[in-house]
Known about the structure:
It comes from Roseovarius albus. This protein is of the alpha/beta class. The protein has 2 domains: 33-155 and 243-284, D-Maltodextrin-Binding Protein, domain 2 (3-Layer(aba) Sandwich), CATH 3.40.190.170; 158-242 and 286-343, D-Maltodextrin-Binding Protein, domain 2 (3-Layer(aba) Sandwich). It is 50% helix and 18% strand. The chain contains 14 helices and 11 strands. The strands form 3 sheets. The protein has a 5-stranded mixed β-sheet with strand order 2-1-3-10-4, with helices on both faces. The radius of gyration is 26 Å and the shape is globular. The termini are far apart.
Amino acid sequence: MDLLGFKRTGLGLVSAAVLCGGLLAAQPVFAKTTLKANSQWPEAHSGSQVDKWWAEEIEKRTDGEVEVRLFFSGALGKAGENLELMRSGAIEIAMMSPGYFPAQLPMHAAPNSIPMAMESVGQATELMERLMDEVPALNEEAEENGLKTLFFHHLNPYLLVCKEPVTDVLGMAGKKFRTWGEALPKAAEAVGATPVTLFLPEVYEGLSRGTVDCIPFSVDLIVNYKIYEVAKHVSEITIWEGPTNATWISLDAWNELSPEHQVIIEEVSREAMRKDRDATLAADAGARATLAELGVTFHEFPEEERQKWRDANPDFFADFIATMDEKGKGDAARKMISIWGEVVP
């Protein structure tokens, strides 16, 4: 090859290298997104195991581009602080109960707090899926608070758990009763009990110190929180059943995700909700056997006594609609209650 040919070839190779390098440099370099998630539940809870699966699936399906770091038992903040923690950017995700925030999230809080309005875990799943799909006001409420709702967890029926046996309405008179939200305290007062607001981490100590005499709790949570050490009597009346803590992400964090990642997270979230339902049901059966071995006694609460309590309660649905009418959202509330009536005849 002559000198001129060598120069031309050499220049061509250099130009090609520069061009390729430029093209490579022009490709966007993806920065891994890490989302901190604060859960109010202990790691041993069945819902927490679903959260682990959810986080792992998101990381897997995004090829490692989105990581959710889970912190259990309120490690990054107390349950009542989660809303502000997300708003401030201290955390991106929270597994928190809307019933703790009735003023800010009244429409979400209703299914999470209205007592004696559902009986089964399956009803809670159907209700929340329909409400999220058919009542846009729920999404609007979340956005007003800088949030996006991803999915709801479940709880097994909250039975009456007391330090002493209670088998009728009269037995509730004078009892200090753990409550949350706005509706459950009224149900306590309806049978002569004194409502006491406690967050989940405070329940064990509340029973131990006598702050409360009774709590509504599911059998699997009695095991998880070792409530059997301080209260060994469970009465077979469903005080509350419904969706529990939802998994929320701040809108700021959500809007920073790519559309592709958003789609993946929504898909995994819907799958997680069904998976959580199944895990919750399985936890109930195992917990009852465990509690029997630990010396916990289950008591019948006759149907006529259950009906007495229901009859003594205010009309929670009417109260909810009246409250939402005052906020200009009465039509959405009526739609919610209509769907509720179809799910729970």
